[in-house]
Amino acid sequence: MNLEDKLFLDRYVVDEIPHLRIINLDKCAICKKQQCLYTCPAQCYKLEEGRVVVSYEGCLECGTCRIICDEYKNIEWKYPRGGFGICYKYG
């Protein structure tokens, strides 16, 4: 079973207010490691047209991104508001 199949088993209640965001896009542009692109288990971070973008809608709420962005501390992460976020169906 691949990652997409496993994530399909979960349910998301997406809030219109993001619980996850990049604080300063210019800092991401100078970041040499860009670890968020490779460590997010849900692959919420992508490189589009040379810029790091985040899609909070599929976030697993693990907090990996806020820990891994240790050089610039450029990710604002908090739990979604009550009633929103991921609902794990199995496990």
Keywords:
91 residues; alpha+beta; Alpha-Beta Plaits; two-stranded antiparallel ribbon; 4 helices; globular
Instruction: Catalogue the unreliable spans.
Output: none
Overall SS class:
alpha+beta
| CATH architecture call | 2-Layer Sandwich
CATH class: Alpha Beta
The CATH topology label is Alpha-Beta Plaits
State the end-to-end CA separation: 15 Å
- What does the largest sheet look like? 2 strands, antiparallel
Strand order of the largest sheet: 1-6
Number of strands: 6
Helical amount among residues, as a percent range? 10-25%
Shape: globular
Average pLDDT taken over every residue: 92
Count of discrete domains: 1
Total number of helices? 4
Strand content: 15-25%
User: Measured on Cα atoms, how large is the radius of gyration?
Assistant: 13 Å
Q: What are the secondary-structure elements, in order, as H or E?
A: HEEHHEEHEE
